[in-house]
Design a protein that fits this description.
A four-stranded antiparallel sheet has the order 1-2-3-4. By secondary structure, it is of the alpha+beta class. The protein contains five helices and four strands; from the N terminus they run H-E-H-H-E-E-H-E-H. The longest helix is centred in the middle third of the chain and has 13 residues. It starts with 10 loop residues before the first helix and ends with a helix. It is globular, with a radius of gyration of 14 Å. It is 29% helix and 28% strand.
């Protein structure tokens, strides 16, 4: 199950990713693909059980049009090697406008140098 529709990621961004990798929405199965380990390259994640991960995933998915976490997967190894999130804040200012906050941009140490961080920002 995806956090959001993959169609929201620009085809132009998808074309820019290196061969052997895909950029896509976070999936509920990414617990097993090392998503949390990749996040731990950025900051302290803590001990999160699969059940807690799925609960949080479902919560984020239930907040329609708010959370957009993208990941880069190393297809050959079936591992998440990078991620980024855009959080959409609803404002009163600017005539009840929307503001996107880019958060938690991370690339696993093994994949640094592939310019994935730039792609996360472009995808957001």
């Amino acid at each position: 199950m995806s956090l959001f529709s993959e169609s929201l990621i620009s085809p132009d961004v998808k074309k820019k990713i290196a061969s052997g990798y895909i950029i896509r929405p976070l999936h509920s199965a990414d617990y097993e693909k090392g998503f949390l380990q990749t996040l731990s390259s950025l900051t302290t994640v803590g001990s999160i059980s699969k059940e807690h991960f799925i609960d949080r995933f479902n919560y984020l998915k239930g907040c329609k049009d708010t959370y957009y976490t993208i990941v880069v997967e190393d297809v050959k190894n079936a591992k998440v090697i990078g991620a980024g999130t855009i959080f959409v804040e609803r404002k009163f200012v600017h005539t009840c406008g929307l503001v996107g906050h880019i958060e938690d941009i991370v690339t696993a140490e093994s994949a640094r140098g592939l310019n994935l961080g730039r792609l996360y920002v472009l995808a957001c």
